[in-house]
Amino acid sequence: MVDGASAVAQQLWAPRAWVQGRWQDSVALEVAADGTWLRIDPDTAASPAMHVLDGPVLPGLVNAHGHAFQRAFAGLAERRDGEHDDFWSWRDRMYGVALTITPERLREVATHLYAELLRGGYTQVCEFHYLHHAPDGSRDADPLAMSRALVQAACDAGIGLTLLPVLYERAGFGTPTLRDDQRRFATTPDDVLALRDGVRALQAPHVSAGVAIHSLRAARASSIVELAQRTAADAAPIHIHIAEQTSEVDDCVAASGLRPIDWLARHVPLDSRWQLVHATHASAAEIDAVAASGAGVVLCPTTEANLGDGLPDLPRWLATGTPLSIGSDSQVTRDWREELRLLEYGQRLTLRTRNVAAAPLAGQPSTAARLFERVLAGGAAAAGFALAGLQRGARADLLVVDAADPALADRNADSLLDTLVFASPVRPFARVMVGGRWAVA
């Protein structure tokens, strides 16, 4: 079903590469036969055995949250025919799309999306996967049909994949069952673990699996605790949507007496495996609790803007040292440069100041550099990687910047990353490597 994808041991040379948190010149990079970096040596002259790359080199980023099937819906909800439109009305329309997706169509849509994500600078995607059953809600003869379509799409495109089958049981805090238009999403803890293990058994290249919980409103408290207990010995990540909408926070307080993140921190042992997606409406105390636990937060700036979710308290998340990553979520944007730009601009608009993410007193005056470093490390945790970036032992992923992009004209190393994020380059990355193989060349 899934073709193998072996790395090729090779030696590369870049005129400039992002190594150890800064641009370094004349960098030799060697890929081992297992698709990891064998060595990264700055200030090294190119030799005839090296393949010379024709632009600056960055490590690839992890897209820490996405729903591939929603790529088919991107751009189709940007009109309002009634008096009111919000996240919940968008969601109703999105469910209509979900009911039409077959395994074959999912593979087509996901392959298209994953190719776009590669050109946008992502080399791994965390797929928050809750579209499981037949359109009528019945169980497929092959329970892995939809998961297998996503795995094959990732292999077809050449991107890495962390597949996260989702626990989804009910329509809301006060509704014990799913709505009819949610019928394809129904899962129990047993289902989720079976899907996780089924994906792992495929042994597809650069594909791993963890688990996810859709949200506190969509899963019973007992099931959330059960899934946490049954995965306690598993090092793979656990993702959950949380505190995305203010009404969700209000409903959680009404149902439990606690805010969502507060409830989660009190009922499961949060640690570095846990990834809190959105966490838009988090109190200061909740942010501090997440930071103390080691859990990460996945921000999805373009989707959060598109859906009218609101803005996170980015300064506090940054100040507490919480691991941060970014995701493309509903797929209205598929380039990490746009995500980081909007993440910063949203803060500027609400705080009415500039370079919110910069930290000159900590030796990080570049806004883009500080954000990039944080999401590089945070994305690794979200995907379940032990290492990330251009360093020995990490998977050999890299991006070659298109040096001919007009937005980059006459930029030196001090301003290159800021320019990549804030000067709106129009060209995708020229070449993309995943695990020692060229996925975009």
Task: Characterize the structure shown.
The protein has 2 domains: 10-59 and 389-440, Urease, subunit C, domain 1, CATH 2.30.40.10; 67-383, Metal-dependent hydrolases (TIM Barrel). A hairpin with a 2-residue loop joins strand 16 and strand 17 (437-440). The strands form 3 sheets. Strands 6, 7, 8, 9, 10, 11, 12, 13 and 14 form a 9-stranded parallel beta sheet that branches. The protein has a 4-stranded mixed beta sheet with strand order 3-2-1-4, with no helix packed on it. It is globular, with a radius of gyration of 21 Å. The longest helix is centred in the first third of the chain and has 17 residues, at 103-119. The chain is an alpha/beta fold and 441 residues long. The mean pLDDT is 96. The protein is built from 13 helices and 17 strands. 51% of the residues are buried. It is 34% helix and 19% strand.
Task: Produce a short descriptive summary.
Helices cover 34% and strands 19% of the residues. The chain has helices at 87-98, 103-119, 145-157, 189-202, 221-230, 246-256, 260-267, 284-293, 301-306, 314-319, 336-351, 367-383, 413-422, and strands spanning 10-19, 22-31, 37-41, 51-52, 57-58, 61-66, 122-129, 160-167, 207-209, 211-213, 238-242, 274-278, 296-299, 324-326, 398-400, 431-434, 437-440.
Question: How is the secondary structure organized here?
Answer:
Blueprint: E1 10-19, E2 22-31, E3 37-41, E4 51-52, E5 57-58, E6 61-66, H1 87-98, H2 103-119, E7 122-129, H3 145-157, E8 160-167, H4 189-202, E9 207-209, E10 211-213, H5 221-230, E11 238-242, H6 246-256, H7 260-267, E12 274-278, H8 284-293, E13 296-299, H9 301-306, H10 314-319, E14 324-326, H11 336-351, H12 367-383, E15 398-400, H13 413-422, E16 431-434, E17 437-440
